[in-house]
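#struct-pred

JT: dropping the chains for the assembly here, can someone run the whole complex?
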Amino acid sequence: MSKDIRIRKGLNINLVGAAEQTTSKAVTSNVYALNLDDFHGITPKMLVKQGEEVKAGEALFYNKNKAEMHFVSPVSGELVEVVRGARRRILTLKILADKEQNYIINKVPDLDTADGAAIKNYLLQCGGWPFIKQRPYDVIANPDETPKAIFISGFNTAPLAANVDFILKGKEQELQAGIDALSKMTPGKIHVSIGDSTRSPFLNMKRIELHRVKGPHPAGLVGTQINQFDPVNKGEVVWTLSPQDLLMLGELVLTGKFNAERKVALAGSVVKTPQYYTTKIGAEISTFLYASGVTEDRFRLINGDVLTGTKTSTEGYLGFYNSTVTAIPEGDDYDLFGWNKPIFNKISNTRAMTFSWMLPGKKYKLDTNTNGEHRAFVVTGQYEQVFPMDIYPLQLLKACMVKDLDEMEQLGLYEVAPEDFSLTEFICISKQPHQQIIREGLDLLQKELG
Amino acid sequence: MKDKLHQLKLKYQGTKMAPAFNALHTFLYTPNETTHSGAHVRSADDLKRTMNTVIMALVPCLLFGMFNAGYQHYSAINGFPENFSLFEHFLTWENFLVGIPTILPLVIVSYGVGLAIEFLFAVIKGHEVEEGYLVTGMLVPLIIPVDTPLWMLAIAVAFGVVIGKEVFGGTGMNILNPALTIRAFLFFAYPTWMSGDKVWVHEAVERAGTADAISGETVLGSLAAGSEPTFSLADMFYGFIPGSVGETSTLLILLGALFLIFSKIASWRIMVSAVLGSLAMGLIFNGVVDAGWLPTYSKFYTLMSFPYWQHLLVGGLAFGIVFMATDPVTGSQTNKGKWIYGFLIGFLSVMIRVFNPGYPEGVFLAILLMNVFAPTIDHYVVRGNIKKRLKRLKTATIYPKSSDEVDSLKTETA
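RK: done, full complex below.
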């Protein structure tokens, strides 16, 4: 039974530079890279040595704590560099791509007859598993656990994020295959939420619970939807996938081929002609960034959207989970009496001489300035205005900061991911790093109790 | 200018004086800080803007207080004008020239001493100078009598800032509202300067005992003494009555409240519930009088029979509700808690006001008391959320881990 709901608390951040719905093929990248920070909490064990050749879809490394979990190469070529950081921790794997791409074609399980364990093994072996994330802890799902439900948010409400309907257009078959494979691994339901879209690829899909979720951001965050439909309790596990990852997973079970191709939105006020590009996971961002052109020399390039993405540079590579790349101006400049003059060109949740409330439809050109210094928590009641979950955000953040495990558990840390706190972080008057606080809290909780 | 200051900032970076310099620098320019982790863009609000908004809401009260100081002074000498006209009798240079030299020093001492201590602590402890005192420093001169000696104020401010705030770790960490801590210190250390019929009018204390002696009593003061107030309701509402500097004009406080609610800076929940609380207590007192349970010779009779809603017009109740009870640091932090917290502040304020034998006012005591209880209120509100979660846990669907199955099989075969 599907539920249609409306989220009331939230804030839409309208920015200049949304991607035009046209797609170009990005120039083929020479080097592809996997950034291991994308796989939070995974300790890699290499299967391929530097200098060796790999095929597209061949395993590069596995998870030390779960040897069956393979992470595969998005392209065929030579592993040219293993970038290591402090204590020889592997940071990035760089692959020099072949001109002619060779794929490993895996033997696909029959979706009608295969059981959950067979699908699970297949995905673990062929590199499809890392697309599945779990709550609690917001990490790659633990294959030993059975989820009570699987959640997929079929739309984006984050600022400038890729339009899901557009990037998944015409891929119904692959998506259905992905859903079919997932449905074998849970006795529970697969919840898919869409906005008010009429051309969502999920509209006529089988074996899902389709929900319509309306309202401002964070309505499109999967955490908001979980909290509304089936919140996570202590001991319970739910899995989450983003739609673009479901597509890859679906193609993997349908064709046996790990096809790293992905439609990516290039957006942001710095980009001259923001639009969509077809490229591959791990591709050099510069291969499509300069095709669209930039209007400034210095800017912040973000793998993902402006609220949850990670900072990268023009030498960076497309992240494993990202379908959006954003470029916005850097804001490292001073502003004379910026704290007391009326503000017309920035977004605010208050009306304290800030006027974004008067023009709800206006698009803004925000930069990376914090608009103030870091302070202790002072103001109360602000976060609740944009935080739709049945959780006390301020109290949970404080519990994480003082590392009080009991409180963290009782106040609902199992239900959240850092991204759920991106909007509270945006409006925070004390400029506290909410997502980092929650991430550290989750890591601690997992280490102590997980 | 911008670049020179930037060079200076780099020069001071890492030194002891960095917080002091940064405080002045960020006062001129919002800093060039950019985001590092998490959200790459941030909203336009910061703590300085928040505090500044409260100060803007307070300025009308301060200006009114300056005129009122002169008005009360001349009225005490010459008697209140018969056909009162706002521009002829109140908004005059004469009145303002009495107000400026008496009240401006209070503001200067309050800010001077308080900020000096803030800077000192920031430099010693190496944290940034925080903006909390900007509001406190403005509140303090508005909640004391006009003629409060400056040295008393200086001592009280020092006490309030150090004991009320800095020992807890500064803005955001304190338990008691610093402005009210300062007020309470003055009240208990120098009670003769905080009550009576001499302190509310400029020069009344100096002239006491001479042929030119003047006096002026607050509405509550005369009620407590058992006499009906001589001021009309309009006087009370507009604020042409004796009292602490900024607390008399209910009209301007109301405007400030609307501004703060509109700008979403102060909690409307606290304000509304505190008004409801005070009305409730007032109604109870009126009811007791109407039921005839209280003999007319009782010393509480006049105060208890004072019409319930008029409590909001006299004394510091309105000012306290709007500007002190809504302090986010010392108040309740949860939305539900704010209703309870505010209601009890209003309720207790009127109760203390009526039953306080020494001094017919209780707003600051009620708010300080509720400051102490605010964390307890929040605790129970948050418990409610936790209980809901525990209840949900009973119907949780937890599947065994596949590794558990393997383990149990192993133990069976062994």
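JT: nice. The first strand of chain B starts at residue 29 and ends at 30. Chain B has a mean pLDDT of 88.
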